[in-house]
Each structure stands twice: as C-alpha cells, then as structure tokens.
Amino acid sequence: MLSMILLCAFIVMLASLIGVIFVWKGFGKFLEKRAQYLTTFSGGVFLVLIYAMVTETFHLATSPWIAIGSIAFGVLIIEAVTRLIPAGHHHHTLPPSCNKKHSHIDARRMLWSDSFHNLGDGILLAGAFMIDVHIGIAATIGIFLHEIVQEISEFFVLREAGYSTKRALAYNFLTSSTILIGVLLGVTFASIESFIALLIGFAAGGFIYVLFRDLVPHAVHSSRETHTEWTHVFVFIIGISTMILANSFVPHSHEHDHMTAEEDHDEENHNTNEIHTTEQLMNDTSINQENSSDP
To answer: Which CA distances in Å does 56 have to 129, 130, 132, 133, 257?
Structure first.
C-alpha cells in the first residue's frame, strides 16, 4: 500500500514540471485558455471525495463529536498555515496578475509556502488511501489537476523573479517533493488504529478547505470575468458525474477492513491450532494411561 501511495505522490509531483510546455508556445497557449476549467473539474471531484471521507469518518469514529472535531481541526490547521504566509501562495491566474514585479524574496516566500502546501497534500492523500484504493486514486487525480494550474502560476512567478526556465522547473520539482514527507507522516499516523478515523477526518477537513476557500471562489471569479458561468457549472457537474460513475462501476474495499479481517483470520487460525494441539495432547495422555493399565 505504501508503494502505491508513493507512486501516486510522485505522479502529483510531475505537475510541477508543467511549466515546460510553455516553452512550446502553441500548446502553451492552448492550455492557458483552458486551464481555468481544470480547477472547476477538480472541484467536482473533491466534492464527491469529501462526501466519502466525511461518511467514513463518522463510521469509524467512536463518537460523532470526535468526527466533527477531526474535520474541523483539518480546516483550521490549513487556514492557520495559509494565514502564516498570506502572500506566499499564488493561484490560478495565468499568467498571475500583479501590479508589481515579483522579486527573489517573493519567489522564496512562495516556494516555502508551497512546501508546506505539498506536505499537507501528502497527508490528505494518505488519508484518502486509508478509505479505499480507488478513493485514493481519485484524490490523486483531483490533487494533480489542482496542482497543474497552481504550478503554472508559480512557474510564471519564478520566471518573472529572474529564474531561468531550468532553475524554475528544478525549484518547483524540489518543492513538490515535500509531498513524500506528508505521505510518510500520514501513513505513520494511520499505522496506529485509533488514529485512522482522526487522519481521515483531518484529510476531509483539508479537502473541504481547498474546495470552498480555493476552488469554488476561483471558479466563480473566473466565470464572471469571462462570462462562462454555465460552462463552469457544466464542467463541475462532469467532475461530480465522473466520480459517481467510477464509484458505481468499481467495487470498493476498505483497507482498514482488510487489515482487521486478516488479523481476525490469523487469530482464528491460531486458536484452531491451539485447540488441535490440546486435543492431540489429551489423546496422547489417554493412550499412555491405557497402555500403563495393561498387565
């Protein structure tokens, strides 16, 4: 399971290299015109993910208050991190609009902010995989689409700050690698059974924050600016429908249920072996007694 999560995290990391396509002017312009719809589509994907993760949190938590608290904690932590570096995160404007030219200080602040953001993505990804492999893959797709637009924006900021194309791509990729730290932290917490519900709740809160504080406002702003409200609604519905169809056609298997079932199976086999051993000892004792009673 860890290898699968790390593979998906590496796929998300590849989004950091998306800036290279803007060296190819034709395809770069094509994507630039349509990138706004990627975040809207990922918003639909995230909405279904949130429903699945919130449901699972309430299913696993020992009380509804623990479920609510873990979800709220996820929202508050990401809000706190965002406020700590308020100017360090650039989103979704291609190229990013700003009245002043970005400096090296702006670029470094943005890279530090993105490092924490990607670390959080790793924890959220691990939480999604704790529910189900297919939920984890869907989370990977949603995060990847979200990261594409963000990384394009950050690529422009780095280029404007004086970084060469190679350096901008290298720094973006290096920064994105913190998602692997987040994955390891998430998996470590998930290895403690009592933390599984808390981790999934925290991840659900994180996705709720990203959806309602980032993706939805961006979609509303973009649709009003370009007068494409109904197109964004349609793309959002496609994202929801894609997830619902995937969930209906692909059977789900909860990873923690598998682990529990395997443990129960091992315990049952152990108990059966103990019973057989006891019966064998009793039979041997009976035979020895019979032999000793014979003249």
So the answer is: 12, 10, 10, 14, 12
